[in-house]
Request: fold
Amino acid sequence: MFTKHRTAGYNGYAVQWSPFFEDKLAVATAANFGLIGNGRLHILSVGAGPAAGAVNVERVFDTQDGLFDVCWSEVNENQLVTASGDGSIKLWDTTLADFPIQNWHEHQREVFSVNWNLVSKDTFLSASWDNTIKLWNQNSPRSLQTFNGHSHCVYSAMWSPHSPTLFASCSGDHTLKLWDTNSPAPVQTILAHSNEVLTLDWNKYQDHTIVTGSVDHTIKVWDLRRPDRELNCLRGHEYAVRKVKCSPHSGSLVASTSYDMTMRMWDITTGDMIEIHDAHTEFVLGVDFNLYRDREVATCAWDESVHVFTPRCLM
Amino acid sequence: METASQQQPSQEQVFVRFEGYDFANDETFQSGLQSIVRNNQSKTEQEQKDAIQSAKYFYFTRFVQSFDLAQYKAWCADRSSTVGSSEVTSTQEGGSTDTIGETQAETVGNESIRQIPDNLAEGTPSEARLAPKLKPWEQKKAAIATSS
Reply:
């Protein structure tokens, strides 16, 4: 199966499958490549079985500024949060049209990532180019906490899938930092790459393993108990690595996207590249594994298209 | 036999070409630049400069010749440590800084960008009806726990 959906006029920045419905996919996009102009959040329903290949647009929400990331709520099946170029964070309810149900504006610059707590499920994180990370509760009018420590843009902050208080962040300051919400300062700092670190994700099956991707074109696998050196360095991308995603189904599988216009998949236990998806014609930014259809993957790119397919390595 | 690398210009040649590129007389770039300037009016001077610089990079790599921004920045940093950075930026900006002033003066709305009010949705947000679903890794852990 290979399904292509056009997000006409909007360049893809992030995709995420719903944690409640196996067919629902959220796509965060921005007009004019995110440099100027509006944003649009797309809620798609992607068919399976006899309906495979059918994409139904359930809802679109337009925003003043480009959307750089999206994350579904872990507590309400209809809600999701987005990160904007204008520094705002919006909470949407797919049962209500046109406008968000919450709009927070505390960050001073672009918000590049939002991530919902996978364990306690009552908070989420935002990471911004203002060098800070903020902790939020969907019912609070203001952020609960601000984490300072990075000396450059924070590109991503992601909760541990195993702990309600532990999260990791990566930054233009070349580091990966580990934080606990009980402490204002980072609990661990790893000088991870020789250039900006744009993305990270936690391995879902190994508590101490994190994967990072960088402008230096490489992906590194880290064991937080041995921070002096990476376990593995995965080479193959020809330009900056924009997103890494650990499979929810296997501890050895990682997907990555890059400005080299490909999505690739890796076996991190052997270090082998096992898939190259080169059907996009512009920078590939978003990738996500469907949580409940275990071979389905979605990608989005600046070519205004979303691809949903089963990679050859998973057939 | 010539190798591919011999046929391609060196990275430095590309950087020099980028800096010497006549953005001021490139109509396509200038038309895009006007809307960038309009949309960055409320921002600080540095932010406006950054937006213009990113637009130049974006335009050049897409339509003229692709290069890696990180490597370009590293190259600029190397050079400015020997040449003096202010000199570099002033020559690099060239005519386009003048155009920025002009286009700011011409500013009148922009049809391509929709104005979306900063409203909140009317109506009552939905209540959660579904209990959180176990993630695949949680299901596998639960299966192992019950089987042992």
